[in-house]
């Protein structure tokens, strides 16, 4: 029975990873197509955050995901974790869109393969987590592969590379601290995404108005 449960868990994890990868790939291809015709990564990011704000609540309610009273979370916790996570979410998405705008989708995905490298390094730096030597050695092929892809990329762009690396780094930080917030507050992971999307949208709407908004409606 225990072995059967382990097998089911393994199949579930693999299935979720495949669904995530397919969804992420489709999202990036659509994003690349959009940004080629509409070169406003900040506006695309705000639209994405707006969709999270408007649609996530009703969808989660239909899914039966119970809300957690955000009043139970102290203002000091908001300032220490939730607001920085919202800032990180905004910048990570903007940087991803800039990368998609400047370089091919395939190259952006290749650079994002460095996420395990960032996660291991940042977890060691921020949380003091230590990994085995086997884990560190397993990161070498990733570094070599990204290096080869960078050297041989015909459409190489420095801004695209730096944006992809910065986005991957920020996403790694988000994953590390989101896990801490989930453990501390008991909030459902989908509710956390909804909350961070709302906070990021509200905080950066004035930024969008100052940059893209005024330009687009002149």
UniProtKB/TrEMBL annotation:
Per the record, GO CC terms?
membrane
Keyword check for Transmembrane, yes or no: yes
Query: Which keywords describe this protein according to UniProt?
Result: Membrane, Transmembrane, Transmembrane helix
The places in or outside the cell where this protein is found are: Membrane
Query: What residue stretches are annotated with the Sugar phosphate transporter domain?
Result: 14-216
Is-annotated flag, keyword Ribonucleoprotein?
no
Which topology term describes how it sits in the membrane? Answer: Multi-pass membrane protein
Quote the protein name from its UniProt record.
Solute carrier family 35 member E1-like protein
């Amino acid at each position: 029975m225990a072995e059967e449960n382990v097998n089911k868990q393994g199949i579930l994890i693999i299935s979720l990873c495949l669904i995530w990868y397919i969804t992420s790939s489709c999202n990036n291809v659509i994003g690349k197509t959009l940004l080629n015709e509409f070169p406003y990564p900040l506006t695309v990011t705000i639209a994405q955050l707006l969709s999270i704000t408007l649609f996530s609540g009703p969808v989660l309610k239909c899914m039966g995901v119970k809300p957690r009273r955000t009043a139970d979370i102290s203002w000091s916790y908001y300032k220490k974790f939730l607001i920085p996570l919202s800032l990180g979410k905004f910048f990570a998405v903007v940087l991803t869109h800039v990368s998609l705008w400047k370089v091919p989708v395939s190259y952006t995905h290749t650079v994002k393969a460095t996420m395990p490298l960032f996660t291991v390094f940042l977890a060691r730096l921020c949380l003091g987590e230590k990994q085995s030597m086997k884990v560190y050695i397993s990161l070498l092929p990733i570094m070599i592969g990204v290096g080869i892809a960078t050297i041989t990329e015909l459409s190489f762009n420095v801004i695209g590379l730096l944006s992809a690396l910065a986005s991957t780094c920020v996403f790694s930080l988000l994953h590390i601290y989101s896990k801490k917030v989930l453990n501390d507050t008991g909030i459902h992971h989908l509710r956390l995404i909804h909350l961070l999307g709302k906070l990021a949208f509200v905080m950066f709407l004035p930024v969008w108005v100052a940059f893209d908004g005024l330009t687009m409606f002149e």
